[in-house]
Write a structure and sequence with these properties.
The chain is mainly β. It has 3 helices and 35 strands. The strands form 8 sheets. It has a 6-stranded antiparallel β-sheet with strand order 3-7-6-5-4-14, with no helix packed on it. About 40% of the residues are buried.
Length: about 425
C-alpha cells in the first residue's frame, strides 16, 4: 500500500471513529445533582434566630407594621417598620428552601422544599411553628430554591425520588457526548425540567398582608393559592392553623407569579399571561391567555389594563425586555396595546395613577398612567438595583441588591424616606 492510499485510509478511519450511529460527538459540560435525604435534611431546616446579615435578598412582603424579606432559599428576615424612617431588623426565620410567604390573621404560610409551613406570629417576639404539610406544593419538579444552577451544557437529573430527595448542589464534569443527545434536551416534549403578588375578596383587608408582583403565594378570602411550574395549588384555610389541600389545577407551563383583581386571577408565566375565574374558589375556570415570546413575566392589573414586564436573557429566554400594556376589558380576548422598551425589568406595582417599575440595574422608574395605555415617566431613581415593589397606602417599599428602600408619596411624586442595608 503506497503512502497516498495509506493517508486516505487513515483519514476515512478517523472520520468513522469520531462518529457512531448517533452522529458526531463533542465535549460538553454535564451537570448532575448532588442529593441528600429529605427527611434528615428537613429536620434541621427550621429555626427562629436573632437577626443575621442577608445572603441573597429575594421577595418582600408587608403585614401590619412589619416587613418580611426573603433570603433566597434560606428563610426570611423580620423587620419592625413602626417607624419607616428607622426600620429595625428584629429576627431571622431560618426556613430552608423558602421563596415565598403570605399572612392572614397572624398566621404566616411559607414554602419549604415543597412543604407548606404555618407559623403563629401574633407575638412577633415569640414566633412559633404551628404545622407543616409535607410535599403539599411544588410536586411536579425538582425545587432547589437555595441551589444556584451551574453553568453547563447538559443537565442530567437521573432517578430522583421527589418525596425523598433534596438537591443540595451540583457536580459538573467535561464529558464527550453525541451532538444529538445535546440537542435532544431542547425538545421540551421530553424535558425533565427543574426550576429552583391590591385588590382582593377579603372582608378584613387589614388582616391580610401584601406581597409584590413576583409572589407565587396569594391569599383570597378563605383560600391560599400557590403557583408552581405548571399547577395552581389550592388550600382551604378557613381553619387557619390546619389548611386543607384541595385539588390542583393545571394552568400552563413556566408559571411564575400570581395576581388577582376581584374574582379574576392573572398568572404570569414565561410563555404568557393566563386568566382564570375564581367565582368558585375551589375550582378556577380558564378564561383566556395572552401569549408572548419566552421571558420572565410578572403581571399587575388595574381596571381594564394589565401591566406586564418581560425580561429577556439568561434563564428568562431570548425576548427583548419591555413593558407590555394589555387591554383586558374583554377578558376572553386580551389585546396588546403598546410596548415600552426596558433594560431588564423585574417587579412592578400600581397605586392610583402611578405605575412603578423595577428596571433592574436601570433603577426604579415611576410613570403617570392616567392616560393609559399611554404612560409618561415622572421620576427615575438611578444608581440602584431594583427588584420588586409594594405600593402601600402611604409609602412604597422597594427591594433590590440587599437593600430595602422606602419612599413616601408627595403629591404626584415620590421621595426617598429611608434605606436599610440588609
Amino acid at each position: 500500500m503506497n503512502s497516498k492510499i495509506l493517508i486516505v485510509f487513515l483519514v476515512v478511519l478517523a472520520v468513522f471513529c469520531s462518529c457512531d450511529n448517533d452522529g458526531p460527538y463533542e465535549d460538553y459540560l454535564v451537570a448532575r445533582p448532588i442529593l441528600k435525604n429529605a427527611v434528615s435534611f428537613k429536620a434541621e431546616a427550621i429555626d427562629i434566630m436573632e437577626p443575621i446579615p442577608v445572603v441573597s435578598s429575594g421577595k418582600v412582603y408587608a403585614y401590619k407594621n412589619y416587613i418580611f424579606v426573603n433570603d433566597v432559599g434560606l428563610g426570611f428576615h423580620v423587620i419592625d417598620n413602626s417607624s419607616p424612617q428607622n426600620p429595625e431588623r428584629i429576627a431571622f426565620i431560618k426556613l430552608e428552601g423558602n421563596n415565598d410567604i403570605s399572612i392572614k390573621d397572624d398566621k404566616l404560610y411559607a414554602d419549604s422544599y415543597g412543604d407548606l409551613v404555618v407559623f403563629n406570629i401574633s407575638d412577633i417576639s415569640a414566633i412559633s411553628l404551628i404545622s407543616k404539610m409535607e410535599n403539599a406544593i411544588y410536586n411536579n419538579g425538582v425545587w432547589m430554591t437555595n441551589v444556584t444552577f451551574p453553568q453547563a451544557d447538559i443537565y442530567e437529573y437521573g432517578d430522583i425520588d421527589y418525596d425523598k430527595d433534596i438537591v443540595v448542589g451540583w457536580e459538573v464534569n467535561m464529558e464527550r457526548r453525541s451532538v444529538a443527545d445535546y440537542e435532544k434536551q431542547f425538545n421540551c416534549d421530553n424535558c425533565d425540567l427543574a426550576f429552583v403578588s391590591e385588590n382582593t375578596l377579603n372582608s378584613q383587608q387589614d388582616a391580610v398582608g401584601q406581597g409584590g408582583s413576583l409572589a407565587r403565594f396569594k391569599i383570597i378570602g378563605d383560600y391560599l393559592y400557590v403557583v408552581d411550574y405548571s399547577d395552581l395549588n389550592i388550600f382551604d384555610i378557613a381553619d387557619l392553623e390546619q389548611p386543607k389541600v384541595l385539588e390542583d389545577v393545571q394552568v400552563g407551563w413556566d408559571i411564575e407569579t400570581i395576581f388577582n383583581q376581584g374574582e379574576i386571577l392573572f398568572l404570569g408565566g414565561r410563555q404568557g399571561m393566563y386568566i382564570y375565574d375564581i367565582k368558585d374558589p375551589e375550582k378556577p375556570e380558564f378564561i383566556s391567555e395572552f401569549r408572548h415570546g419566552t421571558a420572565c413575566d410578572p403581571v399587575v392589573v388595574d381596571g381594564t389594563y394589565a401591566y406586564v414586564t418581560l425580561k429577556g436573557g439568561n434563564m428568562c429566554g431570548g425576548t427583548e425586555s419591555g413593558l407590555y400594556i394589555i387591554d383586558v376589558s374583554n377578558l376572553k380576548n386580551p389585546e396588546l396595546k403598546v410596548i415600552y422598551p426596558m433594560e431588564g425589568p423585574n417587579g412592578l406595582g400600581v397605586k392610583g395613577d402611578q405605575l412603578f417599575i423595577c428596571d433592574g440595574g436601570a433603577g426604579l422608574k415611576v410613570y403617570d398612567k392616567s392616560n393609559a395605555p399611554n404612560i409618561t415617566m415622572v421620576s427615575h431613581f438611578k444608581d440602584i438595583v431594583a427588584y420588586d415593589v409594594i405600593p402601600l397606602s402611604s409609602s412604597l417599599l422597594m427591594i433590590g441588591d440587599q437593600t430595602l428602600y422606602q419612599y413616601e408619596y408627595v403629591d404626584s411624586d415620590i421621595k426617598l424616606l429611608s434605606t436599610l442595608e440588609l
